[in-house]
Amino acid sequence: MQLIDGKDTAKAIKLEIKAEVESLLREGNRAPHLAAILVGHDGGSETYVAYKIKDCEEVGFRSSLVRFEDDVDEEVLLGKIRELNQDEELDGFIVQLPLPDHINEQKVIETINPKKDVDGFHPVNVGKTVIGLPSFVSATPSGIVELLRRYNVETSGLHCVVVGRSNIVGRPMSILMSQKSMNATVTVAHSRTKNLEELCASADILIAALGAPGFIKAHMVKQGAVVIDVGTTRVPSTETKSGFRLRGDVVFDEVAPKCSFITPVPGGVGPMTRVSLLSNTLLAAKDNIDS
Ligand code: NAP
Description:
alpha/beta; Rossmann fold; 2 domains
């Protein structure tokens, strides 16, 4: 069994990005610039945005944080997005999800200029991803593809089961795995899937993106399979200062001995998700330089 170390891989990619930023600066360009819009004070969202800003600092990007209270009027938020769309000093931006209930998330996503949509959530980017055109690809699935690539994991002709069909993880993941670059034969499973245990056990590559801690157990995994655990659910813990820890969708200890490759939680997919946002921002900056 080989552990796929997302933390180390992300560290290596960050160094590559940093070197590219230094070369852009040497050529007289400004540093890539990422902005994040944060609505409200949800603990998880605050943490994710703080990480994104720290990541930017580490690779030499400029970053900006735009904050709104959670009772912000939808029109005010959309107005800010339109303003950022026009800002020539800004290469890309994200709106941290989830948003409060009174705000239409899809409307927010569709207001972002697809050229600055470094989260890859805009339908234009999703559509381009589906037909294999250059696009911003959702950070988690693109981070997973990068992990598989860097670990030389064979995917061609193999059966990949993706458990989960969300717009940000499961569905784009299934699209990427079915493309000619990966050549997997893909099945997408969800909460209405029948015989899920048998289906998972038939997978050469099993990608668990359910958000159900410990759902995937040893009997659901084929001997020699590649297992990618996307799940990150905060569960109470007496062993950490914060009072919680992250648990994956896979029971690591019993599944790992059966695998050819497996990602841990934490330290697997999570760091790659973070680094993919940086890669997308670098792409956006380079596109601005070229055009
Ligand atoms: P989501 O929007 O809640 O989607 C979960 C998907 O899993 C849905 O399609 C759902 O089916 C399916 N599902 C849930 N329970 C199931 C069950 N018992 N059997 C079969 N399918 C089931 O979640 P998400 O945003 O895709 O995220 C999934 C997990 O990944 C979460 O733990 C999240 O925290 C984590 N995540 C991690 C990262 C990272 O960087 N590591 C990034 C993003 C997300 P239905 O469609 O039928 O409801």
